[in-house]
Each structure stands twice: as C-alpha cells, then as structure tokens.
C-alpha cells in the first residue's frame, strides 16, 4: 500500500506595523478569503482523503485580528470609502494597486474587471462608477470561486458584473470577514473529526539554523559569504519553537505537534530544541537525505519512509518530501489540462506501488498550499477535485495524515545525523550570502545588540525583534522587491523607536545596493 501524506503549507509574512496597528499590505486578508478555508472544506466531499495542513502562528494571529475587527490595511480602508469621496491621491492608489491579481486566471476571466484593466493601460480617465466597480472586483476576485458560486449574494454580484452600489460593495467586505472568522474553527473541527492534521512552523517563520548561528550558512555551502557581523541568538530560535507549540495547543487543544521548519531549513543544532518542546515529527526536503547519506543514489526504498534522528533530548521523527512530485503540483501541472495532470500524478504513484509490491511505503508530498492555485484554472479546484476523486477510488493508495501513518507504522529506520540545509537547492543561500541579504542581517544584529537587559525582557520590543527574524525579508533581498525592503526597514525603524533611539540614517534607503530605488 502506498500511503500518501499531503502536507500543505499556509504562510504569509507578518505585515502588521506594531506602532500604527495597521497591516502594511493586504495579503493575509485576501489569501484568507481565497485559500485557507476552501482548501480544507473541499475534503468534506472526500472522506477517504486525509491531509496535513501546516500553518504559521503569525499568519493565524493576523487572521484572528482581522476577524475580530482589530486589524485593517490601506487597501481595506480605501475599499470601504465611498468611491465618490476618494481624493486624487487615493484614486491613484486604487487605480495602480487594485489590479493586483493574476492577469490570465483572475482579472481577464471577469469581463468588467478586464475592461477596467484595459482602460487603465490605455490611459483613459475613470468615472466614480469605474472606481466603485474596481473596488468591488478587486475584493470579489480574491474570494475563492467556490464561495463566489455558492454564496447567493456573491453569485448575484458576479452575474451582475458592473454598476455596483456602495451597499453591494459593503456586502462583499462583510463576506470577506465571515470567511476569515471560519478558518480556525473549521481546521479545529476537521482535526477533531480526523479528516486533517494541523502542524505548525516556528512562530514568525524564521530560518532556525541561521538564528543559532550565521555559520550554519557555511555548513550548508562552504562558499557562502557571511555577514560582517555574525548573528547568533539560539534563545530566539528556541522562543519561536516554544511559542509556536504553545499557540497550537491553545487553538487546537492537542498534545502531539508536528512541525514544518520554516523553508524546511534544518540542522543538527535545532533538533534538540524541537524535541524538548515536544515536537513529535518534522518534514524537510529529500535533498537533506541525499546530502546526509552521500553514498546512496536516489532510491524510493530509502526516501519513502520516516526516520528517527537521535538528539541529546531524545529521538525525533523526520520525513523527507518527494521533491519531484511536490513540484509537479506546485509548479508544473498548472500548465496542463486537468485530466492529463491527474493521470500523470496517478501514473507516478502507481509505479511506486509496483516498485514496492506488497510492502507499505510513505510518499510525502509537501508544497506551498496557497500560491500555486491562482495559476490553475478555477483556482485549482478542478484539479484537486479530480485528483481527490481518483485517490478515493484507487485500491493501491491511501491518503493519510502524518499522525495516522506514524500511529500504525512505528519508525524502524534511523539516521546518525542530519545535514544543514533547506528545500531551496539544499543550502541556506536564499537567506544569506548575497550582499543585500548580508546587509539585512548586519542591521538586525546591530539593532539587537543595542538592546539593554531591561529591553530584552520587554515582550513588545522582543516581538518586534522576532518579527524581524522572519525568513521572508531575507528571501527577497537581491530580487529588487521594493515592498519587502521597505517593510523590513520599517520594522527595524520601529524597533529603534520603541527603545527611544533615532533610527540610523542608512535605513532611509534600500539595503540592496543594486536596487534602483
């Protein structure tokens, strides 16, 4: 029997400005209406398909604050404002930013939305009705197609298409918030029913090995240029782990905790802290297995099973994902016809079954659970429904949660150690080594070093530090991502202001020397 463990990772960076209390970007709210709830509810149609959903606590924290009305963002404020009352600057912002959706799969499939897109690019003026329709379509298009088709007032708005009223716009916003409120309760219900397992990542999604020491980057790749100032704060890594476990238990009331280390980045240094926090299993990329067991060529009999790794605090179960199958879903099948993509996936799993014969195996398919679907037709729902139907009908495979599999299949294999690396090329170079990435680490190290012993005990100040340790800021440096550069520098400036210091002047310009901004 092929046991298939889907692990879908749900993550957005921490966009909230701790000093203003407002989110700088709207992506938690918008992905919250498009990805997190419907992905789980879809499984209600397929009771034999069980999955693991990995969530980042800082993502759920922001969802909770939106749902409770404690968090807003500029996009939301300008949506709620009457179109006829928008100032010229606000109209410019709406016109420039409210087409932030995938052009071919989202904008162009809605005639009025696409008409406005063309009108903008042909430099025609917008009427108040145009701005109102744009306000509605930006928010409506980010709501998952399943909800747009099955919630009557949303279905009628899609059919109407244009000439929306202010009242109809507010109805769309109200539905956004009702969807956000359902996410965590739905996950809790479905875990209690055994349909899903919820696992977590470290609290603000840091690269744990790099928090232990910048030298981890050279453990993964000896040629990595290091920052001038070495960052080494093991206690911060431990905080992210412990707080994530605490958050999970408070929301989901379960003792057993699985963890997806941020970006599947692992090292031997982090494993004892995971065990001490009672994390029962982790998942990482198959590259970690092959780099650990260098003499072994890629072999399903080695890959498709869990391993125990001994630490000073006890053993930890480690799963290695099948990178090829995971990336087919994450990046390739979006270009295929639905039936061809599903046939291809099932063919691969059938071949695995034939290879193992009567023996059981665990195939781990772990991928981003939100970003891929906007590039699929119908936000991926057609593909997923067809895939889940075929899995339900297959006699040689069973889709299980990680917990389910481990409960029935005790770990029988072990590794003496685990190399340092991540799911991006098996190294940590996506977060350290580039001059801009290193400059960001140097700024963080300098800011943290400036904290007094009293400030190190201040929860609000340390929360800002932990936000700055998130992986996303370092990921984007070197790629000329203006928004994330600005947001990282904003978080750094806020840290200095919290401790009563003037932010360094260097934070007033991009940390990326190659950036034109």
From TrEMBL:
GO molecular function terms noted in the UniProt entry: catalytic activity
Name of one Pfam family that matches: Glyco_hydro_57
Spans traversing the lipid bilayer: none
UniProt KW keywords: Carbohydrate metabolism
Gene3D superfamilies: Glycoside hydrolase 38, N terminal domain
UniProt domain Glycoside hydrolase family 57 N-terminal: residue ranges: 5-411
Taxonomic superkingdom: Bacteria
KW Manganese (keyword) present: no
GO biological process: carbohydrate metabolic process
PANTHER family: ALPHA-AMYLASE-RELATED, ALPHA-AMYLASE-RELATED-RELATED
UniProt record similarity statement: Belongs to the glycosyl hydrolase 57 family.
Protein name listed in UniProt: Glycoside hydrolase family 57 N-terminal domain-containing protein
Upper classification of the organism: Bacteria, Pseudomonadati, Candidatus Omnitrophota, Candidatus Velamenicoccus
């Amino acid at each position: 029997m092929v046991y298939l463990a889907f692990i879908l990772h749900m993550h957005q960076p921490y966009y909230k400005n701790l000093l203003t209390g407002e989110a700088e970007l709207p992506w938690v709210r918008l992905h919250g209406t498009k990805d997190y709830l419907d992905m789980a509810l879809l499984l209600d149609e397929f009771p034999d398909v069980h999955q693991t959903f990995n969530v980042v606590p800082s993502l759920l924290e922001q969802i909770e604050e939106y749902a409770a009305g404690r968090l807003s963002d500029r996009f939301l404020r300008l949506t709620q404002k009457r179109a006829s009352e928008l100032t010229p600057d606000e109209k410019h912002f709406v016109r420039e930013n409210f087409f932030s959706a995938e052009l071919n799969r989202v904008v162009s499939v809605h005639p009025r939305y696409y008409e406005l897109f063309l009108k903008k690019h042909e430099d025609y003026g917008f009427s108040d009705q145009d701005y109102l329709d744009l306000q509605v379509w930006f928010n409506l298009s980010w709501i998952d197609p399943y909800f747009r088709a099955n919630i009557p007032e949303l279905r009628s708005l899609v059919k109407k298409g244009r000439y929306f009223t202010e009242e109809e716009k507010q109805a769309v916003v109200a539905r956004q918030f009702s969807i956000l409120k359902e996410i965590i309760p739905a996950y809790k219900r479905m875990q209690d029913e055994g349909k899903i397992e919820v696992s977590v990542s470290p609290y603000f999604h840091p690269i744990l090995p790099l928090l232990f020491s910048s030298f981890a980057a050279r453990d993964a790749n000896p040629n990595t240029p290091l920052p001038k100032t070495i960052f080494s704060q093991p206690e911060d890594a431990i905080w992210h782990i412990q707080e994530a476990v605490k958050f999970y238990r408070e929301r989901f009331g379960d003792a057993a905790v699985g963890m997806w280390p941020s970006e599947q980045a692992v090292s031997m240094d982090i494993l004892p802290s995971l065990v001490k926090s009672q994390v029962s299993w982790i998942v990482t990329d198959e590259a970690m297995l092959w780099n650990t067991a260098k003499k072994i060529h890629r072999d399903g009999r080695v890959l498709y099973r869990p391993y125990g790794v001994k630490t000073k605090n006890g053993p930890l179960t480690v799963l290695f994902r099948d990178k090829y199958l995971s990336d087919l879903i994450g990046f390739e099948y979006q270009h295929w016809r639905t039936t061809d993509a599903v046939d291809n996936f099932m063919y691969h799993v059938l071949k695995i079954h034939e290879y193992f014969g009567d023996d059981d195996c665990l195939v781990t398919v772990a991928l981003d659970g939100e970003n891929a679907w906007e590039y699929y037709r119908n936000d991926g729902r057609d593909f997923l429904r067809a895939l889940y139907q075929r899995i339900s009908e297959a006699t040689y495979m069973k889709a299980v949660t990680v917990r389910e599999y481990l409960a029935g299949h005790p770990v029988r294999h072990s590794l003496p150690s685990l190399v340092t690396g991540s799911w991006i090329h098996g190294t940590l170079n996506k977060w350290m080594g580039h001059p801009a990435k290193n400059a960001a680490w140097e700024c963080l190290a300098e800011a943290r070093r400036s904290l007094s012993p009293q400030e190190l005990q201040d929860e609000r100040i340390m929360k800002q530090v932990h936000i700055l340790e998130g992986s996303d800021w370092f990921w984007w440096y070197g790629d000329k991502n203006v928004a994330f550069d600005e947001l990282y520098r904003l978080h750094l400036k806020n840290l200095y202001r919290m401790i009563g210091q003037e932010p360094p002047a260097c934070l007033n310009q991009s940390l990326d020397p190659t950036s034109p901004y």
